[in-house]
Design a protein that fits this description.
Layout (H helix, E strand, L loop, with lengths): L15 H51 L13 E4 L2 H4 L5 E8 L2 E11 L7 E8 L4 E8 L51 H26 L5 E2 L1
Parallel strand pairs: 1-6
Antiparallel strand pairs: 1-2, 2-3, 3-4, 4-5
Length: about 230
């Protein structure tokens, strides 16, 4: 058998230096991937916190319109209970009820509910009710209504939501809490019935829940669940 020449070099791919470079390269890729993942997670967390902060600021602005800060001395966003009552409220998700107090005494409950059957989808509402069960007011927090229909309660017909102020389950009688086309006492928007029907029903249900759970709402510990 012929002997191999002395000057034959080993395959470069099999040298220790090449193997070391491959390992270092693989480690660098892993480090870069981990760093990128951490950066993305940080950006996502920062974005989420900013979105959450903006949502809270928007919410407190709407609450301040309903129950002005001068009429309360507690932190309404933390002084809340959670309603779990799909039969009364008409929605399956938990509903936050913010409690306004002054000198430790109840001033109002603000029910953060949803009208699930709006024309284009759910309509988030704040329904403020005083201790006697009378509506202080209603604010729309979020909606996806068609311009010209959904914005009726914000732009085209600014007087529509204020019509709830001062109403209760006794005014009108409970069975007349519906739009006029359904035999109730509430006007609809011009050319639109589905959205006002959904809002009227949701406000009525908030009042019904408040009447049934009034004592519990104000006496329950912060964060308690009410069924």
């Amino acid at each position: 058998m012929a002997a191999q020449p002395d000057d034959v070099q080993p395959d470069a791919a099999s040298t220790p230096d090449h193997a070391r470079r491959r390992i270092i390269g693989a480690i660098a890729i892993v480090v870069l991937a981990v760093a990128a993942a951490l950066a993305l997670a940080l950006v996502d967390r920062t974005t989420h916190e900013r979105v959450e902060r903006n949502a809270q600021e928007w919410l407190i602005q709407r609450i301040d319109i309903l129950v002005p800060p001068a009429s309360r001395d507690n932190d309404v966003l933390t002084d809340k209970v959670i309603a779990l009552s799909p039969d009364l409220l008409g929605i399956a998700r938990p509903v936050a009820i913010y409690r306004a107090r002054s000198g430790g005494q109840p001033v109002a409950a603000i029910v953060h509910t949803t009208a699930p059957d709006g024309y284009r989808g759910p309509i988030e509402l704040l329904v403020a009710i005083d201790v006697k069960g009378t509506l202080i007011g209603v604010q729309v927090v979020r909606h996806r209504e068609t311009p010209g229909l959904g914005d009726a309660f914000e732009n085209r017909d600014r007087d529509w939501l204020p019509k709830f102020t001062g109403r209760s389950l006794d005014d009108p009688p409970q069975q007349r809490w519906a739009v006029k086309s359904d035999g109730g006492d509430f006007d609809a928007f011009t050319g639109a019935t589905i959205t006002p029907r959904a809002i009227v029903k949701s406000v009525r249900r908030a009042l019904e829940f408040y009447r049934a759970k009034r004592a519990t709402i104000f006496q329950a510990p912060t964060g308690a669940e009410i069924r």
